[in-house]
TrEMBL record:
Segments forming domain 4Fe-4S ferredoxin-type: 663-695, 732-760, 799-832
Entry's transmembrane regions: none
Name of the protein described by the UniProt record: Cyclic nucleotide-binding domain-containing protein
PANTHER family xrefs: DIMETHYLSULFOXIDE REDUCTASE CHAIN B (PTHR42859:SF10), OXIDOREDUCTASE (PTHR42859)
Source organism per UniProt: Parerythrobacter lacustris
Superkingdom of origin organism: Bacteria
Signal peptide bounds: none
Keywords (A to Z) from UniProt: 4Fe-4S, Electron transport, Iron, Iron-sulfur, Metal-binding, Transport
Domain Cyclic nucleotide-binding: 382-476, 506-625
Record-linked InterPro entries: 4Fe4S_Fe-S-bd (IPR017896), 4Fe4S_Fe_S_CS (IPR017900), cNMP-bd_CS (IPR018488), cNMP-bd_dom (IPR000595), cNMP-bd_dom_sf (IPR018490), FAD/NAD-bd_sf (IPR036188), FAD/NAD-binding_dom (IPR023753), RmlC-like_jellyroll (IPR014710)
SUPFAM superfamilies in the record: 4Fe-4S ferredoxins (SSF54862), cAMP-binding domain-like (SSF51206), FAD/NAD(P)-binding domain (SSF51905)
Any Pfam family hit: Fer4_11
Length: 846
């Protein structure tokens, strides 16, 4: 009969290796099972020469194995030495095939699992849990017995695959071993987690290899990557070593080329090799057959675990990436801790305990850290899918706060893009700014602040605690990371935000129950720039709500598309076919990369039939659209004249940023006399630094779009601001505060060239000082030479500031450029007024 070990550890990555070293140091009988012929296969497969980071920096390392930031080869060499020094019992070429309890069956522990075939078929299988000891069957037929099993197998062996035409071509790969093997290739990296960033940088590091490297990021944020990696990637982009393609996704792969959907439409670029680093999923079948339950049916869900890493099968513990904790330092701490727990040390607290205690010190009730984590996880719906280990990591980037009854959590129009979850109590939303007594309740377990998270816009209402309330405030990056790692959280946030957007848009006394079926049958659709959601002449009665981005409506006249209207976020379209039947009367397509809520027409028709006020509003909206259609139809004879000019002007303005703007400066050149008062007023309002270049920019007909900030709905400049110096103000303005460090990321990320870096000037002498004593450069913007000279004299030659329009926030009377224009040529346009100014061009043409 084989020896029964006190503990068998499966997998020798950082978590398993640390566990084995602790077992050896304590003198526990143990075995470390590794399927390859070397330790720590995950680190071993890192690209050669990779610099491995030791984060979080404020977390103490608790392990018998050393770990400091350094080269892959150095770290592996040190671990080999220490493993030998501790006399860890390692069994190589030992891949686990199955784990079975050999003790009595546990009453009531039958577990049903779903087995999925490659063809999409599903079958079920019942698993009966048994008491330990456990028999571990290896693929070579050998059996290992153990009282406890620690699963530290990670997820790297089960990578997520690309899903697009051409994804199965031979030049698509999911691993990079040695970046020096590739020379003179066009290489595209898909995925901007740490692995993708490090692969891209490794391939672009040596210019002698002559690789052209691009890395795709489907958004503008990097929620799953370490900050140091993001900064290093940006530095490589700035120096021309590689290219970061933001808001880009793969549409199609073909030999020698890849087609991408971007914010502005499709592009096709050369591509010899694709390296996809888009994450991985737990080896679910193997784990479930051990009797271990998962948090949900989603492929990317993680096992259910206790605070001491024990799974739903007694005596089987899960640590490391398989537990949802991928960072090396976390994994090593878990390896140490799990062996201490198995050895009877029930008093041991996790290494991050001091950080957690500080997080909860201002909350009432005096719960322990474990109790608080479970309290928050259980009571906030979007956190239900997390296990205790994920909760600890999540709280490192979030804050728990207590508000007494009546306290304001945030004010209407306040800047902010964080999300809040209600763990106890409730909040009241003040929906009418004129009458704070009119409120809508949000109950315990739900969320609020999702509008700021999704759009980045200012808060839409004042929210107070309706009773003593505990909330979790989740930063934007933490919320994005939560959605990427916990599928149930993403679904919950999308459902709640959809319901609230529909209730806010349609109003008419609707309640959640009234639109439950509409929400249940709706879906969020991401629409690339230029792609149509409705096509003129098509059948269909679905309604589309613009969630993010904007749409343009066109009608075919004389074989050419003629612009009808512009739909910013918050608009809806499609009601004409629903109410009156018939085919679609116009084409609706994305002005920029957008998101829409697709609503089932039949479900929405039932709501209309039950709510006459809503039906009346929909008919008013339909009548307004028909009047526009009729007007355009009546002008067929003038196509190529005023109608053509109207259409082209509208398209010009959309192409120049109004498709994502919340406020854009336009200049009517029939009125502009070139006095430059607008620029001078801007400079005088901003310490001599003008935010406006009147002459720069583009013109169509007599509408000029100068170089000035659009205050985008989703500001590109906010995407990677290390000190978080870029914010949205109370009036929707995007501004840069005093925390700016002059890194230039905002300047690089802005697609409209409206941000510049400038020497931080000393205070400019007053106009009176200039008149009387000749001090300073005089009125208007201080010339660059003067600013640079004064900065050098002050010893701050390298001090730079990012300069952009802030809509004269805090200055009485609003934007100085508009106030200073003597002829009224300068106008600021919000999306809802866009068509008004487009029609002015047409009227002038008439």
């Amino acid at each position: 009969m084989p020896e029964t070990y006190r503990v068998a550890i499966i997998g020798s990555g950082p978590a398993g290796l640390s566990a084995a070293a602790r077992a050896a140091a304590l003198g526990l009988s143990h075995v470390l099972l590794e399927k390859t012929d070397h330790l720590s296969d995950t680190i071993y497969k890192y690209q050669k020469g990779k610099h491995v980071m030791a984060t979080p920096s404020n977390l103490v390392l608790r392990s018998d194995c050393d770990f400091d930031a350094g080269k892959r080869e150095v770290i592996l060499g040190k671990w080999d030495e220490q493993t030998a020094g501790y006399k860890v019992n390692v069994k190589y070429h030992a891949e686990a095939k199955a784990i079975r309890g050999t003790g009595p069956a546990i009453p009531g522990s039958v577990h049903t699992i779903v087995m999925r075939g490659r063809d999409g078929s599903k079958t079920t299988k019942e698993i009966q849990r048994h008491q330990p000891p456990y028999e571990i069957e290896l693929t070579n037929g050998e059996k290992v017995m153990a009282e406890n099993v620690v699963l530290a197998i990670g997820t790297q062996g089960n990578p997520n695959r690309m899903r697009c035409p051409g994804a199965d071509l031979p030049h698509v790969q999911y691993q990079l071993d040695d970046p020096t093997e590739y020379v003179d290739e066009h290489i595209v990296i898909v995925g901007t987690g740490d692995a993708g960033i490090e692969n891209a940088r490794g391939l672009a590091e040596d210019p002698a290899q002559r690789n052209t490297v691009s890395i795709l990021n489907r958004s503008t944020d990097f929620p799953t990557a370490k900050d140091a990696n993001v900064k290093a990637l940006q530095a490589d982009h700035d120096s021309g070593k590689l290219m970061i393609r933001l808001e880009s996704e793969t549409k199609e792969i073909e030999p020698g080329f890849i087609t991408l959907t971007t914010r502005d439409g499709e592009i096709r670029i050369p591509c010899d090799r694709i390296i996809a680093r888009i994450g991985s999923a737990p080896p679910r079948m193997f784990v479930e057959e051990c009797g271990i339950e998962f948090a949900s049916e989603d492929r990317n869900a993680f096992p259910k675990l206790s605070p001491v890493f024990e799974s739903t099968t007694p005596g089987i513990f899960v640590i490391g990436a398989l537990a949802g904790y991928p960072l090396i330092k976390h994994c090593m701490n878990q390896g140490y801790d799990v062996i201490e727990f198995i050895n009877g040390n029930t008093e041991l607290k996790p290494a991050d305990e001091p950080i957690m205690v500080a997080k909860f010190k201002d909350l009432p009730a005096g719960r322990s850290t474990e109790d608080w984590l479970e309290f928050l996880r259980a009571n906030v719906s979007i956190l239900n899918g997390m296990n205790p280990l994920q909760m600890r990591e999540f709280m490192l980037e979030s804050e728990a706060k207590f508000f007494r009854k009546g306290e304001v959590i945030f004010e209407r129009n306040a800047p902010g893009n964080s999300l809040f979850g209600i763990a106890s109590g409730s909040v009241a939303v003040e929906v009418n700014p004129e009458d704070p007594s009119i409120t809508i309740p949000i109950e315990c377990g739900s969320i609020f602040g999702e509008v700021g998270l999704i759009s980045g816009r200012r808060r839409g209402a004042t929210i107070r605690a309706a009773e003593d309330t505990i909330v979790v405030e989740i930063s934007r990056l933490a919320a994005l990371k939560l959605q990427s790692q916990v599928p149930t959280a993403k679904k919950a946030i999308e459902r709640i935000s959809t319901e609230r957007q529909l209730l806010q848009m349609f109003g008419s006394g609707l309640k959640s129950d009234d639109i439950r079926e509409v929400v249940d049958t709706s879906e969020i659709v991401r629409v690339p720039a230029g792609e149509a959601i409705l096509k003129e002449g098509d059948e269909g009665n679905d309604i589309y709500v613009v969630r993010v981005g904007s749409m343009i409506v066109e009608k075919d006249i004389g074989g050419k598309p003629v612009f009808l209207s512009y739909l910013p976020a918050g608009s809806y379209v499609g009601e004409m076919a629903l109410l009156d039947g018939g085919k679609r009367t116009a084409t609706v397509k994305a002005a920029i990369k957008s998101e829409v809520i697709k609503i089932n027409g039949d479900a929405f028709k039932q709501v209309l039939d039950k709510h006459p006020k809503l039906l009346e509003r929909a008919r008013r909206d339909m009548k307004s659209r028909r009047e526009v259609n009729s007007f355009i139809e009546s002008q067929k004879h003038s196509f190529g004249g005023a109608v053509d000019l109207y259409s082209k002007t509208a398209q010009f303005l959309i192409d120049n940023g109004i498709g994502e703007a919340t406020d854009v400066l336009l200049i009517d050149e029939t009125l502009c006399v070139g006095c430059d008062n607008c620029e001078k007023a801007c400079a005088d309002s901003h310490e001599g630094l003008s935010r406006l270049d009147r002459e720069a920019g583009t013109t169509y007909a007599h509408l000029h779009v100068p170089t000035s900030c659009r205050h985008c709905e989703h500001p590109h400049c906010m995407a990677d601001c290390p000190p978080n110096a870029i914010k949205r103000g109370a009036d929707g303005e995007v501004f840069i505060d005093e925390k700016c460090i002059g890194c230039g990321n905002c300047q690089r990320n802005c697609p409209y060239g409206v941000i510049r870096l400038d020497a931080k000037p000393p205070p400019k002498p007053s106009l009176l000082s200039w008149l009387l004593f000749g001090r300073g450069p005089g009125p208007g913007e201080a010339p660059y030479k003067w600013r640079k000279k004064k900065a050098e004299e002050a010893g701050v030659e390298q001090a730079k500031l990012a300069i952009k329009c802030d809509m004269c926030s805090g200055i009485e009377g609003g934007p100085a450029c508009v106030r200073a224009c003597p002829t009224g040529a300068a106008i600021r346009v919000a999306p809802e007024k866009f068509l008004t100014f487009t029609k002015l061009v047409q009227e002038d043409a008439d």
